[in-house]
Design brief:
Strand content: 15-25%
CATH superfamily of one domain: DNA polymerase, Y-family, little finger domain
Number of helices: 13
Radius of gyration: 22 Å
CATH topology of one domain: Dna Ligase, domain 1
Oligomer: single chain
Shape: globular
DNA sequence: TCTGGGGTCCTAGGACCC
DNA sequence: TCTGGGGTCCTAGGACCC
């Protein structure tokens, strides 16, 4: 018996949930994003397979998507609650599988830890359980650690299963670009390329000292290992504890006066505080994010003189930060992030340099 | 041409202390 | 007049993920 990591990823999750409750949309290009109005400032959350054939994908501005979309395309607003509910059903179906440790990674993804001689059988059982509980399809990547399991999923899509281990890592991934690795984005890809490192195999063969000099002691070593598919193998079911909450809004019309900015900050800071208060934890720090028109973003923060559970304190801190903004420039986005004190013993021991929940 | 909203973690550099 | 080394905390900024 061996330990395996399975990565379960829902296929077209958001679009699939929408089609499920509106069967008449099946087969049509479905684009979910923003408030569902393609003339607004917003981006695509998910596009159905039919929409993808027209070059529409996540992260694309709705206005661009509208230009590419055929006449019978459907634009829908994001319905947070519906996806949350579907996600909970998916996770509880998977949790019910025997001998499983489940770690939630996002709305539509999780890792399963399992000890077995037949991980493919577990993967098929996971797909069947999810399908039976929710009528949704998913793909499963099997690996000997999280990095390989996560990368494997792409080869399983849609509705399939793929195994990626030390055995076949280079055979499958060696000639792929560094960008195909989980945790390598466009910036890092470019910096690697400047050193002649383009492929996954080249990253594995690169001089670690060079990578450390370029990216620092932690990230340098991490990226080097990523080339060989190295990563953590521990699946941890401990519930995720948020470190901060934020609210941000892109305004359809830019804010032009200091008064407008202050009003918006008061509103955003109030919501951010409420999210923290709902967890019963004090706020220790407040951050502001501002996007000046046309597109320059700044972030900055301030530690509070003392942790606070008072709403007005957080709002005052956000307003004080807001007073330092450039009042001559139009604002198209504002965000307020409130960082919370960690709960007792909540100083995370082991962290993985892959961003987001893991 | 137009670029969301919610998150986490890493690094560099300055301030300050001993 | 010149000026060490180590440590910690904080801020700003960057990068990435779903």
């Amino acid at each position: 018996m061996a330990d395996w990591v399975l990565h379960v990823d829902m296929d077209q999750f958001i679009a699939a949930v929408e089609v499920l409750r509106r069967p008449e949309l099946a087969g049509r290009p479905v684009i979910v994003g923003g408030r569902g109005d393609p003339t607004e400032r917003a981006v695509v959350s998910t596009a159905s397979y039919e929409a993808r054939e027209f070059g529409i994908g996540s992260g694309m501005p709705l206005k661009i998507a509208a230009r590419k979309a055929p006449a019978d395309a459907v634009f829908l607003p994001v319905d947070h609650d519906a996806y949350e509910a579907a996600s909970a059903e998916v996770m509880s179906a998977l949790r019910a599988l025997p001998g499983i440790v489940l770690e939630v990674v996002g709305w539509d993804e999780c890792f399963l830890g399992v000890t077995t001689d037949d991980p493919e059988a577990v993967a098929r059982a996971a797909q069947a359980a999810v399908l039976e509980a929710t009528a949704l399809h998913c793909s499963v990547g099997i690996g000997d650690n999280k990095v390989r399991a996560k990368n494997a999923t792409e080869f399983g899509k849609p509705r399939g299963v793929f195994r990626l281990t030390e055995e076949n890592w280079f055979e499958v991934m060696g000639d792929k670009t560094t960008r195909d690795l989980w945790g390598v984005g466009p910036k890092v890809q470019k910096r690697l390329a400047a050193h002649g490192i383009v492929s996954v195999r080249q990253l594995a063969d690169a001089d670690e000292d060079l990578l450390v000099a370029e990216f620092g002691p932690r990230m340098g070593v991490w990226y080097h290992g990523l080339g060989s598919g190295l990563g953590p193998a521990v699946v941890d079911s401990t519930p995720w504890v948020a470190r901060s909450h934020s609210r941000e809004t892109t305004y359809q019309q830019n804010l032009t006066t200091p008064a407008e900015v202050q009003d918006a900050l008061t509103d955003l800071a109030g919501h951010a505080f409420d999210d923290c208060a709902a967890e019963g934890r004090p706020v220790v720090r407040v951050h502001l994010k501002v996007r000046y028109a046309p597109f320059e973003t700044k972030t900055f923060g301030r530690k509070l003189s003392a942790p606070t559970t008072v709403r007005e304190d957080v709002i005052a801190a956000a307003r004080a930060l807001g007073a330092t903004l450039d009042q001559q420039r139009e604002v198209r986005l504002l965000g307020v992030r409130a960082e919370m004190a960690m709960p007792d013993g909540g100083d995370q021991a082991e962290r993985t340099p892959v961003r987001g929940r893991i």
